[in-house]
Amino acid sequence: MTALEAGTAPHIPVLIAEVLSALSPLDGAVAIDGTFGAGGYSRAMLNAGAGRVIAIDRDPTAIEAGAALVEASAGRLMLVPGTFSELDRLANEAGAASVDAVVLDIGVSSMQLDRAERGFSFRADGPLDMRMSLSGPTAADVVNTLEPKELARLFWIYGEEKQSMRIAKAIVARRDSQPFSRTSELVSVIESVLGGKRFGEMHPATRAFQALRIHVNGELDQLSDALAAAERVLKPGGRLVVVTFHSLEDRIVKRFFADRSRERAGGSRHLPEASVPPATFSLQGRQPIEAGEAELAVNPRARSAKLRFGIRTDAPARPIDRAALGVPSLFRERP
Hints:
The protein has 335 residues and is of the alpha/beta class. The chain is built from 15 helices and seven strands.
């Protein structure tokens, strides 16, 4: 057993075999792990022969926890604090102007979900925080200050919560007498509107907590910018692999790859086909890769995971259009 294989990561990396297959070959490759988390993908890429992995995370606790893996890597792993939306700049500063592979696991790590003091989970009481970077406004700041219509839009757009306005009104009524500071307080208000959890059903606070987390961390803007940054930094033949966990994320990734792999614009019998820029990615398949029954049996978190990947062409990178990718503009849409 190698030093990298020794020890157990705090969580099971989702779709790890499929990720490595999509990234193959990795022998000697320079790769970016844009979402280091507990280090599962970085460890797997190093064990699969990657020559160097530049791992990025904006959570200082993840950087600190990864120190042992850095030491075990004998110089092959570099941990960089920052956001994956700037992965090309961060890689360049780390001495890699271009790379062979980029992998992004879009979601909250088990390290964050399992620690009540981070405030991501509705299952355990903790401060209503949700900040991945441990800086900036908290989820408590959001629920205590946004106007009812803004809160409702947030829950509707980022959480696809059908009862968004009812929840927003209940939050405002409660905060007028006592501002929110704990996750359990918010859960209690949501349950007063939607009822408690029923066996076999999703917890009633799931969508609202998802929406707050996305908003607090600017996750969808970060994702679209990260896709553009990966396009800029990948060499021709380099591979971009993205794992998402809910429909908003997957929709953005799907549209990005569809746009970047398109070789012609749709025409009609009345209009000629319009020219399109050269494709920057080629796709091996249009449908996402999902976890099989064997993985689901040991890792339920994989149930909602979808993997999409593309291979970089030699066409020049293009500017990103967030609206075209379906990145919501929170306060310009109505619930």
